[in-house]
Fold this sequence. Notes:
This protein is α+β, with helices and mostly antiparallel strands. The protein is built from three helices and 13 strands, in the order H-E-E-H-H-E-E-E-E-E-E-E-E-E-E-E. Strands 4, 5, 7, 8 and 9 form a five-stranded antiparallel sheet that branches.
Amino acid sequence: MALEGAHAGGRGRSLAAAVLVVALALSVPVARAEGGPVDVAASEAAPPPNPPAPAVPAPASSAPSPTPVSAAAADPYAGLPKVVARAVQELEAECRAAEGRPNWKPGTLAEVVNVSPDGRPDYLIDTHAIACDGGFTPWIGSDGFRHILFVSTGPGRWVRAFDRAARGFEIDNKGRKVPQVIVFSHSAYCTRPNPERYMRCTQVYEWRRGKLRKISEDWFTD
């Protein structure tokens, strides 16, 4: 009987030990396939995380991007009659043909003058006011600088009344009903006999009957 009691006591202790092992096994966290421990109770109780909200693209602007605007270059011929502007362009072309760069300032090359009695503006181009940088200057010679005079013949009309070199060019209209154009010319342009072989003469012109006419010529002796 004592032996049976001993066996019974041993079986009881073995059963209690088995129950304890099972209880300990249930309390140990289960390993994840990736190798990290997972708390089973916590994973069952916690809700799944919310998926990230999709990115919303910013609305495209319907307005076009501004285009930079460059300042327009000033027209150097602004305010000049077409015939006068063409004469300036002729001078520029002559300079470029001589491998130079025309250099002049608007408002200084073509001067408003008064030659005709109609009260409309006349124009004088004095090539003292234009340079030909880097090249031979074609409008300057031993006979002086080229002068181009445009005289009004009516509304919106001008005629090229004078176009040649001169050593001096003046317009005298002070106290005169008819202005006078005074030209200091090389002897090659003088027509009077020249026994003393003077190099210059003074020629006076007036606008008469629609033309610039020479009214006097004298040798320049000074």
